[in-house]
Amino acid sequence: MATIVEVDDPADPRLGDYRDLRDVELRKHVEAEHGLFLAEGEKVVRRSVEAGFAPRSFLMAPRWVDGLADVLATTDAPCYVLEESLAEQVTGFHVHRGALASFARNPLPSVDDVLAGARSVLVLEDLVDHTNVGAIFRSGAAFGFDAVLLAPRCADPLYRRAIKVGMGAVFSTPWTRLPDWYDALPTLSAAGFTTVALTLADDATPIEDAVAGVDRVALVLGSEGHGLSPRWERSADRRAIIPMREGIDSLNVAAATAVACYVTSRR
Amino acid sequence: MATIVEVDDPADPRLGDYRDLRDVELRKHVEAEHGLFLAEGEKVVRRSVEAGFAPRSFLMAPRWVDGLADVLATTDAPCYVLEESLAEQVTGFHVHRGALASFARNPLPSVDDVLAGARSVLVLEDLVDHTNVGAIFRSGAAFGFDAVLLAPRCADPLYRRAIKVGMGAVFSTPWTRLPDWYDALPTLSAAGFTTVALTLADDATPIEDAVAGVDRVALVLGSEGHGLSPRWERSADRRAIIPMREGIDSLNVAAATAVACYVTSRR
């Protein structure tokens, strides 16, 4: 059973995991250095526990304690309870969903483990927006993708906002970081995947044709601003485009991924 | 030529249009009461002017003035110039893209005007998230949709964040508010559109089948949380679903719309 700790000082050092949640750069450092991630909202907190992550602590307003009683019963971690206005001083914003929890990260699996048995894989290069990363995990899960691989500099899928937007898909989908950026796609090809890069390149074929009849496929997606790096664009087996209205070549990367996942799921 | 006005007091009442931009509820009132909308970033400011909206004023840091000189040359509106740290005190956040502008809204066109000549239309019920509304406008434009109709309570597509996410698609796509919520879909049917509601209803058919061979189509989308109202779900001509992995029925509304627009564009 978690220990309920009532807190009335927002500067209490035990609340360090929850400080300034809107300061993305600060949070990246804090979370990496302490090997933690934050879950927001009863549903996401619950899914994190169910996915086997160990809570470091909880933080919530009094009215949320009962709703999470069953979750709190499963752990010895402290549960810091404080008034909503004080919680807001700690986190820097109004926590609409009431409950927050800090979890220890687990070691990432190997690429081989993540790919074992997979038939449809998403590969994300240098996406910077956590909302997009979360939305892409969610679309991948909806359309039956088995795994997600992230380039070394892709935004963190365990960032609070990514988890929230992804509706917890980051917990149900095996994923890991690619250790080697340069040869990432040739390595996937050697492992039996056809790598299909989504791009606006001149020699790109419509996505429906690019994935037709392909067994093991890896859909490769680039960053919001500049798309894929030239290296990844050139080292993919195929280049694919989503046909759009003439003169328009602009689709948000999360929207493009949803369409590409849909088409690929029907190959 | 805009009048350059250097400002050193963040409480200057002439900056009222730009106050507390992160406070969504406050902004809704301010923007409705004054009939204004805000554009953020050089590109969006430029597109707003090109789309024929009349600037009320501009607000920017000194280093952004030159880049927008051609735009400022087209108007008599004041351009308030202040240091970035002061601008941040006005707006409540760090304005990464530097330039802001306040524009007067134009009267909305009639539904008939928006539908004239249209073959593919998006109809949004009660979406609450401005990011989703912007992303949907962008996907609609990418896949050749001719118009967007909004239920009376749908979130504002001219809200700063919607414009930004939509990459200005709200300026290039004809849109308006539906005056009548209850009979909105039967009215569209009477006007010759087949209304296709995206839903998880039991009698929904796959979207590809639902739009096959349809000439004038209106794709109907519901809110993030609860989807369509029962009235809209029942009064649509057809109910369609995006086939997903078994046991998963969760796709962000913007992702679902992108897929539905893609499929519809290929009908």
From TrEMBL, chains A, B:
Keywords from the named record: Methyltransferase, Transferase
The UniProt record lists the keyword Endoplasmic reticulum: no
Name of the protein described by the UniProt record: TrmH family RNA methyltransferase
Single Gene Ontology MF annotation: methyltransferase activity
GO biological process, one term: methylation
Ranges where the tRNA/rRNA methyltransferase SpoU type domain occurs: 121-262
